[in-house]
Amino acid sequence: MKSVRLFFTKKGDARFVSHLDMNRMMTRLVRKAGLDIWYTEGFNPHPYMTFALPLPLGFEGLYEIMDIRINDDSFDISKIPDIMNGVCPKSIHFFDAKEPDKKVGAIAFAEYEIIFDDVGEVRNKLSSFLVEKPIIAKKRTKKGDMKEIDLSDKIKDFCITSENGNTKLKIILPAGSNDNINPSILLEAFYNKNSDVYYCYDVTRTAILDGNMKKFK
Amino acid sequence: MDKKRFEQLLLTVQKPGRYSGGEINSVIKDKNEVDIRFAFCFPDNYEVGMSHLGMKILYSQFNDREDIWCERVFAPWPDFESVMRQNGIPLFALESKDPIKDFDFIGFTLQYELSYSNVLNMLELAGVPLLAKDRTDFAPLIVAGGPCTCNAEPLADFVDIFFLGEGEQSDLEVMDLYKKYKHNGGTKADFLKEASKIDGVYVPSLYDVSYNEDGTVKSVSSKYNAPMPIRKRIETDLDKTYYPEKFVVPYIEIVHDRAVQEIFRGCIRGCRFCQAGFIYRPVREKSVETICRQAKALCDNTGYDEISLSSLSTSDYRDLEKLLNSLLEWTEKDKVSLSLPSLRIDNFSEELLEKINHVRKSGLTFAAEAGTQRLRDVINKNITEEEIIRTCKTAFEGGYTAVKLYFMMGLPTETYDDIKGIADLAQKIVDTFYEMPNRPKGKSVSVNISVSNFVPKPFTPFEFHPQITREEIIDKQQYLKQCIHSKKISFSYHENRTSFLEGVFARGDRRLGAVLLKAHEKGCKFDSWDEFFELEKWMDSFAECGLDPKFYANRERSYEEINPWDHLDFCVSKDFLIRENERAKMAKTTPNCRKQCQNCGANIFGKGVCFEKR
Questions:
Q1: Residue ranges making up the domain that contains A125
Q2: Most CB atoms within 10 A, among A144, B520, B545, B585?
Q3: Which residues of A touch B (CB under 8 A)?
Q4: What is the pLDDT of residue A80?
């Protein structure tokens, strides 16, 4: 038995699949693909499968990661992406398979690309908003109540450009089990401050990074 | 609407996966390459509709034809419906996102009466005139199938064509005829007249109904030589009947999220309350080989790890043991678990229990239906209390500590003693558990009794009976609650108001079309969902149309009365239904089809259980 880390993109229709539904769907896809995967051994055996970093509903993802275990040690894992793509809906595309480098706990940051529908107005307001100190946003705690946090020192890096007449924000935020900032709360804070801006954006998570800002593998 | 904007709107509603399309095995075609576009509509939400086997069968069967593109449509949940209305999005099909008003056919499956208001709402959302007489264009044609077509008179004003019985062949024959008209030209009126000659096709506009002064039907007459009566269509050889090799696998969790393998149609039992047990006659089985082949293909093509053997009474399959053994040959290896819904209490065994627990353990539910032997005999359930207790004991010995039992309330001849009998039976099951020396240690037992309200349905021996009133239902529910003394027994019951409306429409006539229209205008939809059901609006609609709903639900009907569905022939004769009703009154049971033929009329097809060797 060996662990395999699979890399895939989740775009289009698949952005409407929640994390929980994603679990269920992937279970069926690996079964449909006929991969000889390892099953858990409890009362209710199911294929072992973990996702490195759940992707919020509505986001697209270009660097999504899922770990499985293959029973046959001699199996050529580089074949897996093609096998999976043969059964996947077109909104899910596998592009790599590796034996895992690091444990999932090593994930520290994620990079997002956010496209805003409206240029000019958004671009200027966003530029000044992101350098404000503090940036107060509301975050739901594990207990379920809302807590105010300052995001100004959480933003690792950002860059605003224009693309096809739209404003594009690239931003790196903490991610993983220690500290995780969903860009939605930042955007929520932005729109609360600038209620005149047309509320419309699309988020793509473009990379998952480790503590050294290297792509997590 | 552009794709981007559509996706952004989806992100503002609950469960956008209901509307996104693009699921595994969904079928995309080039609309310019097909002759017929068919919008298959299920008048309830995505999760309910996607669980329906009939839709999966016809979706695949239609799409296997190169000239047809069948797409799925569900009733949008009210949150998305308001987004659609605000943004001027007409009802669209999931695969292409194209408005269904441009399709050739809009087909509804009618599984329960309480979905009728959704049919009207969906037509309105589609931008199609609701009344058939107002739809002067040839297309889209509004068609409907499913069990409710055995009395779909309340929808007669809205639907162009009803498919009676099983639709596999009649659907395609109608589409072929349509194709001919589309290519050669012709009027809708001529098309409908010709379509009415196809077996199993009922064109309601070709029949006139007149009424007596007391509101009962006086006569039904056909125009333009349309057939009378109109007989249902069935598949005579299930081994040759189309069955899909794959299902669309949804992104989001649906009600029945598993592979479903049909093993037979019809039911030998003849329980007198059960409409399905009569309208799907005669019993026709699939062979073990066919079932195994089809089930394997389904699991391989969907990735499902659970397969449900579907029928009206799964343990009545003659070769059940051989079937389970053949299935277990591969299901165990592939880690596929079997679930057998609709098990009967009288032939449930330890071996069977062991087989269905091979991979994963699922819940156990049994239908006892009534609390006393007398009442079980009235409804012809043909099971004894001893069998119920023994079955529960078997389940407990197999490690189960929870069982669920189904009952009905409001059955003909029911007394308060029968209601008390439900509580007594549940108590005996609890006692049985604690009397077992080898019971699972350290565990408590839980007996869940679920009590629904009996609704008399057409084509059953109880079609003559009044439904009990809402007041009686409430009274009996309260009484049953008082009769339960153990915390180990949980009791759930059904809303009386929805049962009442179901009862009205089940045996309704064409005049109810006006009521439907009124209720739709008042905003009635999703009536089977308690949170949306508004009886006041319905009662106002009845009053405005000058109709009394109790006339339909709570009135005893004489054998001589012409019922609104009497011109439809589901091959169970009225004589037979009357004989059965008389036996019910005497609490006399009737042997099942395999034991002794009762000459119900279903042998007219020359196939099935009627011709099995005994």
A1: 105-210
A2: B520
A3: 12-18, 20-21, 24-25, 27-34, 39, 43-46, 57-58, 87-91, 200, 202
A4: 97
